[in-house]
Amino acid sequence: LELRAAKLAATLARHAPGGSRALLLYPAGLEFITVYFACLMASIIAVPATIPHKTRASRRLKALLEDADPVLILTRSDCEPAIRSSLSLVDAANRECLSTDTLALTGDPASLPEIKPEMTAFLQYTSGSTSLPKGVEITHRNIASNVAAIRVGFGFTPETVMVSWLPLFHDMGLIGSVISPMHVGFHCVLMAPAAFLKSPAMWLEAISTYGGTCAGAPNFGWDYCATKISDEQKAPLNLASLAVAYNGSEPVRAATLRSF
User: Fold this and answer.
1) What are phi and psi of 102, to 5 degrees?
2) Within a 10 A sphere around the Cβ of 96, how many other Cβ atoms?
3) Which end of the chain is more exposed for a tag (fewer CB within 10 A), N or C?
4) How far apart are CA 100 and CA 83, in angstroms?
5) For residue range 128-187, what is the model confidence (pLDDT) as tens digits?
6) Separation of alpha carbons 153 and 158, rounded Å
7) CA 212 to CA 222: how far, in whole Å?
8) Beta bridge partners of 217
9) For the residues of 101-159, what is the DSSP string, one character each?
10) Could you give the 3-state DSSP secondary structure of residue 18?
């Protein structure tokens, strides 16, 4: 991953100058992670976002394009037709859109710029569910400070095993389930959010199978498990390895914790 990210970073640097923005529109998967790190290495400011599918999502896309003004829109080849269609709907068909999984990696990693702590690493936008999305500039120093605090607070070590279905375009999944494991060097098992929503038992089965020591979700995720997983599905589970089960991003409800 590191080598491909470096080569991709050098290639992307030929398409966008340092300090410019790149909108990342990816389904759950490793390609997003590679591209995110490539942007950081190229000093291109990543703007993670959800793939637009509906009218409300198109409005969010339009707001992001107007606010962040990305030089590049990065996606996967199987998503590119839908992305281009969405761009047309918001009068942005002229934006440069690249499929990174099929992009020829022609750049030289040795040419990558020096990254300084005060430089902006990425823009984190609010969901836009109650108003237009609002962006926050996150620096490399912000990320380093955040993962250091998480490491201490959660007791992460190289022996930690995390199991996560959290969306990677937002901070709870991105910082907690991608950057923290990379920073500390522990094993993280990732699954798509849609897989969890379809079958919440899969999350607990993965914790049981991989000996997960850490897992987390907003309150609704724990409640979803407590109400949707049958006694038959519970029977073979062994969650004894779980040392940290965290609940965040929403109000924490005692009844949910007791039920789980």
Assistant:
1) -115, 5
2) 12
3) N
4) 14
5) 655 677 889 999 999 999 999 999 999 999 999 999 999 998 889 999 999 999 999 999
6) 15
7) 16
8) 247
9) TS------GGGPPPP-TTSEEEEEE---SSSS--EEEEEHHHHHHHHHHHHHHHT--TT
10) coil
